[in-house]
Amino acid sequence: MQRKGRGRLRLKRIVLPGEKIGVIEEFLLGEGTYEEEGVIRSQVLGEARLDLERKLAVVRPRTRTPIFPREGSKVVGEVGEVKRQTASVDIFKVDNRLITTPFTGIIHISSVSRGYTRYMSQVVRSGDIVRARVINTKNRIIQLSIMEPEYGVVYAFCSKCGALLELKRTRLSCPNCGRVERRKVSRLYGTEVLE
171: Cβ–Cβ under 8 A, 6 or more apart, which residues? Predict the structure, then answer.
């Protein structure tokens, strides 16, 4: 397909990774391309654009690169089931980017604080929004830690009436019913952007 854009003649077509786009005698290598024995090939599935005026070959990706939690990634998620020594977290944000396919992570009680914690329910509750760091991804199990000050609960809800809890000094209190609850609170409580 030929298109004239901003006074330039361009050729466009969909290409697969490794597909020939042109030769280095005719075009310069642009984004999404590589050269192999004088042949310009596509690095990704996408739309090849040959700018005939600038003599430039470019491939714009047609698919998004999936985001996976890796060791060291900062994640945000909603606490699901809370057991005596573990809590599951439905991760919806990885390294400040919303993800379309959620992952489930696990917080073990040993990754909560340096001191002794008897029950996981003293730290997080179902429905809480937590910020955590990925510490291990072996065997496809995403293990999380909330030990550092920036990690922990960033939004919590009253277990009696469901209202958003407010942080007052070191305790979380409900503005509706006055209930006071304990959690392992992040120093970023109430500031995490969820969108």
Answer: 180, 181, 182
